[in-house]
From TrEMBL:
It is an enzyme of class 2 (transferase). Belongs to the protein kinase superfamily. CMGC Ser/Thr protein kinase family. CDC2/CDKX subfamily. GO terms for biological process: regulation of mitotic cell cycle. One of its GO terms (cellular component) is nucleus. Its EC number is 2.7.11.23. Keywords: ATP-binding, Nucleotide-binding, Phosphoprotein. It comes from the Eukaryota. This is [RNA-polymerase]-subunit kinase.
Length: 430
């Protein structure tokens, strides 16, 4: 490595803190969440549809997960209740978002008037549809009202059908939408620090219960009033405590950690930390730091910047694919004496030394050396006070107002030009 990319000893790593890189805690929340996932998996394995009565039981278990997370202890007794009705919510305006798995709409509770976000998944063939909804609802419920996680309300069922929806508190636009409103103008380091503190805090809370999100990206991050940042969308999440976690490699290519790209089925919570590093880099530059066409090309993009891992680190990734290709890349880089180029992409005028220590710790190929969310939060960059305390939301508002003023000014100048043209004497025109 070059001097510019040498790791400073003050940066805590998972090994420095005596923390395992991928803890699998068996908290009460983790056990209850795993029980729901295992129950759903039983139906999938048997090829049976989850009945309305069984769905109501699972819904009550999901409520228990939410209460346990929020209160720090299980309920003294389980209260039997009917599942909420989807007819109790009225959609307002256009859809908030639409993806491969489902749609999210803004709605209002007819009885209380509370504004919520309602997510409905696309119907699939067979009996897996309701299981997908209930599974994602349980991961959402495990947020327990944490300020950096989307808040779960309930599971709602459309009467007379097997259509289920997840009801959550309404937050605001996605971080992706906010980035678009800025015209992809990069965020300042102070803004990125405020965002990353919240994202790392939300990830730490999830990882404390052995929950792996597996698809953290700006599209799955919401921005609320006052600059509140919340992680959402647990459609491909897994629990390290469940008996048969999903082995399907899901997520978004540009944010996938190396261990996922090589099809390591044992990947743990630090894959989320890698994704957070990619988000941090994108906020600073306004563009993706690694953008490949497929899994192999994505690995090449990563190793072209960070360098191909040594044989020990490569084996630590437990690769199930691309082994021969990566060995050829390593030999080629050794011949040309390739070095880590991450600091070249993020010079000190863009990111301070303390900030780079965090970014480098998040974007570390070796899962055992990668910073955990908890360790990153203890880094000086995350603990120091902000010099500029303006919330992100205020900066977003200012950006929108400035853009609108610019458009109005252009329209006014154009209108004035047209008016002068009409008033100009014909002799002059000719």
């Amino acid at each position: 490595m070059s001097a510019a990319t040498t790791q400073v000893n003050t940066v805590p790593s998972s090994m420095d803190n005596g923390e395992p890189a991928d803890p699998a805690p068996m908290t009460t929340v983790a056990r209850r969440l795993a029980a729901v996932c295992d129950m759903i998996q039983e139906h999938r394995g048997a090829g049976t549809t989850i009945s309305a009565r069984r769905a109501a039981v699972i819904s009550a278990m999901i409520d228990d997960v939410a209460a346990t997370t929020a209160e720090g202890r299980p309920r003294a007794c389980r209260r039997k209740r009917r599942m909420a009705s989807a007819r109790g919510y009225k959609q307002e305006g256009r859809r908030l978002g639409q993806g491969e798995r489902g749609i999210v709409v803004r709605a209002r509770h007819r009885a209380t008037g509370q504004v919520v976000a309602v997510k409905s998944l696309h119907r699939r063939s067979g009996g897996s549809y309701s299981g997908d909804v209930l599974r994602e609802a349980c991961f959402t419920a495990a947020g327990g009202g944490h300020p950096s996680l989307a808040a779960f309300r309930t599971v709602a069922r459309n009467p007379g059908t097997m259509d289920y929806s997840i009801v959550m508190d309404y937050v605001g636009p996605s971080l992706r939408a906010v980035m678009g409103d800025r015209g992809d103008r990069p965020f300042s380091e102070a803004e990125v620090r405020r965002i990353m503190r919240q994202l790392l805090a939300g990830a730490e809370a999830r990882h404390g219960h052995g929950i792996v999100h597996r698809d953290i990206k700006p599209d799955n991050i919401l921005v609320g009033d006052g600059g509140a940042i919340r992680i959402c969308n647990y459609g491909v999440a897994k629990s390290l405590a469940e008996q048969n976690p999903p082995c399907r490699f899901s997520g978004t290519l540009s944010y996938m950690a190396p261990e996922m790209l090589v099809e390591n089925a044992d990947h743990g919570v630090v894959v989320d930390v890698w994704s957070l590093g990619c988000v941090m880099a994108e906020l600073l530059t306004g563009k993706l730091v690694f953008q490949g066409k497929d899994e192999a090309n994505q690995l090449f993009k990563i190793f072209d910047v960070l360098g191909v891992p040594c044989k020990r680190v490569w084996q630590a990734l437990k690769p199930q694919a691309h082994d021969d290709t990566v060995q050829a890349w390593r030999a080629r880089q050794l011949r040309v004496r390739h070095r880590n180029r991450l600091r070249e992409l993020f010079p000190e005028e863009m990111l301070s030394r303390d900030g780079f220590q965090v970014l480098k710790g998040l974007l570390t190929c070796d899962p055992e050396k990668r910073l955990t969310a908890a360790a990153a939060l203890r880094c000086p960059w995350c603990t120091e006070d902000d010099i500029d305390g303006a919330p992100v939301s205020e900066r977003i508002t200012v950006t929108k107002i400035t853009a609108m003023a610019s458009k109005l000014r252009s329209l006014a100048i154009s209108f004035l030009g047209c008016a002068l043209e009409l008033l100009r004497p014909k002799a002059l025109v000719q």
